[in-house]
Structure formats: C-alpha cells, structure tokens
C-alpha cells in the first residue's frame, strides 16, 4: 500500500489500444491530482507515453516517488505475431507438440525427467551447443522447455549455463515461468516470453529515457496480468507476465477509486476506444484464469485476471449497408470522424456534398475515409516502394473518401495498395463510430461535433432513415452487446457473448432483452445481483442503459476515464510459490518445487522445510521487485483417494504468497537508465 507521507506522488501510465493515459496519484489522500490522455502510437508506443506525461502538471514532477506502467505491448505482439526470433530447445519430450509461433527455430534433444523427478536420459549437451552455433545471428533470444522440469529443473538449468557460455543472448526456462505440469503450454509460454524480451526492453528503455529528460528519477514498476506490480528489471526477464495487464489495471484502479463497498461483489466493465474488458469480482478480488491466460490463439501458463475482452469501444467501426437492416459494431477500430475533422476540417465539405450515394459500392460507405497515421515514422516511410510512397504523399494534405478511388482495374489496384499501406501502419481508416453517435446526440464533445452530426446525417440518408432512428438503433445494439457479454462473464461462459449461449432459452432471453416478449408465451426476467462498475471514458454512455435493463446499481468513479492509469500505481507487489510433497514408493517423502527434489523421512519435516524455503524465496522475489514491508501467507491442500481408514494422501500442495507495498525512493539528480 502507498506510504502515508503527504509528499508522495505516483505517476501512473496506461497504454491502451486508442489512448495512452497518465495520472499523478497522491498517495496519502488517494486522489488523482492531474490527469491527461494522448493518442497511443502503435508503431512506437514511447511517443504516446511521452506525449501523455508532458500533459500533466509538471510542477509536481519533483514529488514523484514511483512510476507505474500498464502496457498492451506483450498482448498486442502475441496477437499480431510480431515477437522477435527465438531459438527453442525442447528436452526429453517425444510426444506431438505444435509450436505455431512464427519466427521460432526449434530443436529436440534427449534428456528430461519423469513425474518423480528422476532423470530419464542424460542431457545431450553437444546438440545444445551445436544448435546455439547454428542459429547464431538468426535469433535474438533462447527458450528451453524440459520434460517434467517443474519436478526437476536440472536440465533446464544446465541448458542456461551452456547457452550463457555459447551466446550472450537472453535464455528463458519454462520452470521459471510456471509450476504447471502441462508441458506443451509451458513450452509455448517460454517461447512467447523469449520473443517478447527485446520488445519490452526497447519500450522500457524509451520510457526510461523520457523520464530522464523530465528529471523524473523514481523507480519504474510494471503491471502484471494479475494486477500486481513488478520491477522493470523483472519485466525485462518475464515480459509475458504483463499480458492482460490492461484489464487487471482497470480492476485495481476501480477498487482504489471506489473503495471496498462498491467493488466487493461487482462486475468491472472497462470501456475503451478499442475494446471492452469485463472482469467479475468476489470479495473484492478478481477471478483468475485457472487454466492459464489465453491471448489470441495461444493458451499460456500465466495466471492472469480472468477478463472477457470484447472488440467493442468508442472507436469501433459501425458497419452498415443498403442491402441489410442489420448493423455490425466492431471489432475493428477506426478514427472517429469528429476527431479526423479536428485535423482536416475539409472533410465536413465532403460529407455535406452527398450527391448520388448509390454509386458507393458495398465495400465502402459514404462515411469511410483514409488518412495518414500519426504513428508513421521516417523509417517506415523510407521503406515504402515508390508507388506506395506517392499514394501516401497524396493523403498528407487531405484524407481521401474511400469511395473516391476510381473505377474498374484502377480502383482494384488502388484498394490493394491502400490495404498494404494500412497493414504497414502508415495509413489508418476513419469513419462513423459510437463516439460520433454520442457526439451528434449531445452526450459528449470529442473533437469536431459538427463533423459527427454530418456523418450521422450522411449515413442516415444513405440508409433512408431519420438520423434519430439510426442513432437509436446503434445505441440499442450497443446496450444489447454489453448486457449479453456481462451475463456471459458472470456465468463463466467461453466464446462469444450472444444468444446462442442460452440454448433453448435463446428466444426467451431475446424477448426479455428487447422488451417485446416471444411467441412461446414463456416470460423471463434477469437481474444482476452485483454492482456494475464502469471504467474508461465512455463508460457512463455505454453502461447506463445496460444497468437499467439488468436492474442493478451502476457505480462510476469521477476519474473513471483514467482508472487503468490509477491501477498502474495502486497495486501491490505479489509473488506466489507452489511446492508439492509426494510419498516415496518405498518409504519417506519427496519435496518438489525447489532447484532439485528433496527427500525427507517424515512429512512434517518436509512441510516445515517447504514453508521455510518458499517463504525465503518469495520474500526475496518481492524485495527484488521493489516491494517493502513484505508479509507471507499460505496454506496446505491435501489430495487424497479413498475414505475413512482407506483414505490415502497422494499429494500435499503448499500454495504460498508474499505481498509487499511498492517501495519508493527519494528523487535523484542523475538518472542514467531505467
């Protein structure tokens, strides 16, 4: 927890899909004293971070005692497959395993252990050395996963030493990331982590440089996927632990802003520009992913907040067509026309000159525009072929309406080129979004409101609807999506939050949702027996109708738009450890979870040793991560078979955790690095 000194100010930073938020959080009073937002620059996240920090009250910078960072870098890199090249060494596993991660060179070598921690074959050290030499210059890090290394990590530890001698590249061992037995998932997790190391290092170096230029010398902490904090040094070693840190930060931040009463039994819904994250809390604590967090198509062994992420936000694209009465919102993110008009007011003239809109093809709508990306760097532009650079230069002065791309073969070539430029990150799409709908309705003021009004009127005319009717339909669809996703999150349903998840009750739930009953004559009423907590700038607009339909209380803190940034500095430093004791075949007990299996004659001796060694290790890890005032708690769980006198304990499992508050340091004059 924060110190009591009134002079302590924490700087919280959250890089979201659309905006990068920054806050100055006063530790003693528990309040935000300065806050700001800046567009997230996906091609170079540090640019958005610097812009956000510069928007804060610089007079308080000298008081900053800690900096907390919540970043989407790891999650985005995994989903977008942009991790760096990795050399993966699989030891002693002969079963089928799919490592569909791009840019990974894999080798299998003999070695490994069994479930009791006994070596099944010697490690083939010669193959490890040869592999390191073969991939020299082709990979930027190594990962090693040895069979049953969670029971005996000896071969992974030996591979670490061999690679340290053969190469100066980082090495990731599976047992250091997870104690789970699922070998394929542990191997994937190790490989993903290795590919993220160079990326997170670049970001933290850039953030460190930015802080130095502003004479901010406080320690830098990074948010983990479970909402706790780790030092920047640990983040450089285990960047995969930052996956889903955005949803985790929103939970922690909302708790700090609201207090225990509102957060105790709740559903936190963080509505951003790109996505909406939903987390269910019991007793003030979020549910954690039992099977490991899933990011994109990969299941990992990282235990993060069990958040439901939906491609729905203020900047989600609204897709509409003259050939259908249905609308689709998201999952793609585009630039709202109200924000585009701030930079290029000329688009309002284009929207006003509607003419014959029947000429727009089904792929494009009259509100679709293309414009240059603010995140385009000179390096990115320098790598463009001449024809693509010429197309880009034409759009620097003015956006292009997507329908105005010529006809026939000329149009086809232009569209192919524009798709490539968007994929390269130098162009972005703009169009009608929920932000524009709320702007036009007078619910908010984001950018040029007149442009949003014109966009709504243009789309309505194209669909032969009144603007008010189009606005009503979009808002109704937003509410329905939020309601179904919240219900699915509370029930723990996987998959998309839609009516199909309700099986034979789908029509009945649909009738309740729309308030018009159904033909079966079976009625239903659904009430959320939890507090609906809103975070993110559009939270109130998105959640008020949903809360009314779910007959629940809606709690939105005053600083909800920057709840994630608050969460980046209001968490604790947490480390968990697990040890397992199993009876030997003959007599005695074996303790797993240490550097090597340990044997004991009596189970009490094994339990005492496990508690002492894990407590020391967990405390040391919390301290290394910048935590102070460390406390340890935990307990034993027995796994048994049979009943009564026939009951036999198969395993005794110790689950221990060490918790400390983030440490702070007095400002220093010279900060050379982070």
Give the SSE layout:
Blueprint: E1 9-15, E2 19-26, E3 31-39, H1 45-54, E4 64-71, H2 73-80, E5 86-91, E6 104-109, H3 125-134, E7 141-146, H4 154-166, E8 171-173, H5 183-213, E9 220-223, E10 229-231, H6 232-237, H7 245-258, H8 260-263, E11 265-271, E12 276-282, E13 285-286, E14 294-295, E15 298-299, E16 308-310, E17 316-321, E18 324-333, E19 335-336, H9 337-343, H10 347-352, E20 369-372, H11 378-382, H12 386-396, E21 400-401, H13 408-424, E22 427-431, H14 434-440, H15 449-462, H16 467-491, H17 506-514, E23 531-535, H18 539-549, E24 554-555, H19 563-567, E25 573-583, E26 589-592, E27 598-600, H20 603-624, E28 627-641, E29 648-662
Parallel strand pairs: 1-4, 4-9, 5-6, 5-7, 7-8, 11-23, 19-22, 23-24
Antiparallel strand pairs: 1-2, 2-3, 9-10, 11-12, 12-13, 12-16, 14-15, 17-18, 20-21, 20-22, 25-26, 25-29, 26-27, 28-29
Question: Could you write a compact summary of the structure shown?
Answer:
The protein has 674 residues and is α/β, with parallel strands linked by helices.
Description:
With 674 residues, this protein is α/β, with parallel strands linked by helices. Strands 3-2-1-4-9-10 form a six-stranded mixed sheet, sandwiched between helices. A hairpin with a 2-residue loop joins strand 12 (276-282) and strand 13 (285-286). Helix 2 packs across helix 5, helix 3 packs across helix 4 (154-166) and helix 14 (434-440) crosses helix 15. The two termini are 23 Å apart. The model is unreliable at 1-6 and 666-674 (pLDDT under 50).
């Amino acid at each position: 927890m924060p110190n009591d000194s009134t002079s302590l100010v924490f700087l919280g930073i959250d890089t979201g899909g659309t905006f990068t938020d920054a806050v100055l959080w006063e530790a003693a009073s528990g309040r935000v004293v300065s806050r700001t937002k800046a567009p997230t620059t996906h091609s170079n996240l540090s640019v958005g971070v610097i812009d956000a920090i510069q928007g804060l009250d610089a007079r308080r910078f000298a008081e900053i005692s800690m900096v907390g960072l919540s970043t989407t870098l790891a999650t985005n890199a995994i989903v977008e497959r942009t991790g760096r090249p990795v050399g993966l060494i699989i030891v002693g596993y002969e079963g089928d395993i799919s490592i569909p991660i791009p840019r990974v060179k894999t080798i299998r070598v003999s070695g490994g252990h069994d479930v009791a921690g006994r070596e099944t074959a010697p490690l083939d050290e010669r193959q490890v050395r040869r592999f390191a030499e073969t991939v020299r210059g082709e990979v930027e890090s190594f990962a090693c996963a040895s069979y049953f290394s969670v029971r005996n990590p000896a071969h992974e530890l030996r591979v670490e030493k061999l690679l340290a001698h053969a190469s100066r590249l980082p090495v990731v061992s599976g047992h250091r990331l997870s104690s789970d037995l699922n070998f394929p998932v542990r191997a994937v997790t190790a490989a993903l982590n290795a590919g993220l190391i160079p990326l997170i290092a670049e970001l933290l170096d850039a953030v460190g440089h930015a802080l130095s230029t502003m004479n901010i010398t406080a320690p830098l902490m990074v948010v983990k996927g479970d909402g706790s904090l780790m030092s920047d040094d640990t983040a450089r070693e285990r960047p995969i632990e930052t996956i889903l840190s955005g949803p985790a930060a929103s939970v922690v931040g909302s708790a700090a802003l609201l207090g225990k009463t509102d957060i105790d039994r709740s559903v936190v819904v963080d509505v951003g520009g790109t996505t909406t994250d939903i987390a269910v809390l019991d007793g003030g604590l979020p549910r954690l992913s039992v099977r490991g967090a899933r990011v994109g198509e990969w299941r990992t062994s990282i235990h993060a907040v069990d958040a439901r992420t939906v491609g729905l936000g203020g900047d989600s694209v609204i897709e509409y067509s003259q050939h259908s009465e249905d609308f689709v919102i998201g999952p793609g993110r585009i630039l709202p026309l109200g924000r585009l008009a701030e930079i290029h007011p000329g688009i309002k003239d284009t929207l006003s000159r509607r003419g014959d809109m029947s000429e727009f093809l089904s792929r494009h709508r009259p509100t679709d525009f293309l414009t240059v990306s603010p995140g385009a760097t000179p390096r990115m532009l320098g790598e463009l072929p001449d024809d693509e650079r010429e197309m880009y230069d034409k759009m620097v002065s003015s956006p292009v309406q997507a329908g105005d791309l010529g006809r026939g073969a000329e149009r086809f070539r232009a569209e192919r080129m524009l798709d490539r430029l968007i994929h390269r990150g130098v162009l972005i799409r703009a169009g009608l979004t929920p932000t524009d709908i709320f702007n036009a309705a007078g619910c908010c003021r984001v950018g040029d409101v007149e442009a949003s009004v014109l966009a709504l009127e243009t789309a309505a005319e194209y669909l032969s609807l009144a603007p008010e009717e189009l606005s009503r339909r979009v808002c109704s669809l937003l509410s329905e999506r939020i309601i179904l996703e919240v219900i699915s999150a509370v029930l723990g349903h996987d998959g998309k939050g839609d009516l199909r998840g309700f099986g034979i009750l789908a029509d009945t739930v649909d009738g309740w949702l729309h308030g018009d009953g159904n033909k079966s004559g079976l009625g239903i009423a659904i009430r959320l027996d939890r507090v609906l907590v809103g975070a993110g700038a559009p939270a109130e607009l998105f959640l008020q109708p949903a809360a009314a339909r779910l007959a629940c209380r809606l709690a939105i803190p005053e600083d909800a738009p920057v709840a994630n940034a608050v969460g980046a500095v209001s968490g604790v430093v947490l480390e968990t450890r697990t040890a397992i004791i199993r009876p030997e075949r003959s007599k005695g007990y074996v303790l797993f979870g240490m550097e090597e299996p340990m044997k004991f004659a009596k189970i009490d001796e094994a339990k005492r040793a496990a508690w002492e060694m894990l407590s020391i290790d967990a405390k040391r890890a919390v301290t290394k991560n910048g935590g102070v005032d460390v406390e340890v708690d935990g307990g034993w769980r027995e796994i048994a078979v049979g009943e009564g006198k026939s009951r036999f304990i198969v395993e005794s499992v110790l689950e221990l955790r060490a918790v400390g508050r983030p440490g702070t340091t007095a400002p220093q004059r010279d900060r050379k690095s982070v």
